[in-house]
């Protein structure tokens, strides 16, 4: 059964609990800055591990000292679902341990 898309107002309300995450069209996004390229690479690996645990994968971009995520649910027609917000919350929880801000 495909995931149900969330209404825009619910997404916006829930994003208030996820500082730095924004709604851009039909996806939620966040860019983290890290102290070094090595720290950014380590954070990227940790995010990939979380994605595998949740069986929910985002677009993940590694820059010199940045990591950008862009998340929506393909099974919901490319809309934002509960799974996207759960992934964002998990990433946000581990980010400080990598020096991400």
TrEMBL record:
Organism: Streptomyces brevispora
GO biological process: tetrahydrobiopterin biosynthetic process
The protein, known as: Putative pterin-4-alpha-carbinolamine dehydratase
UniProt-listed Gene3D superfamilies: Transcriptional coactivator/pterin dehydratase (3.30.1360.20)
GO MF term list: 4-alpha-hydroxytetrahydrobiopterin dehydratase activity
Key word Metal-binding present: no
Swiss-Prot/TrEMBL catalytic activity: (4aS,6R)-4a-hydroxy-L-erythro-5,6,7,8-tetrahydrobiopterin = (6R)-L-erythro-6,7-dihydrobiopterin + H2O
CDD domains given in the database record: PCD_DCoH
Superkingdom of this protein's organism: Bacteria
Residue ranges crossing the lipid bilayer per the database entry: none
Keywords for this protein: Lyase
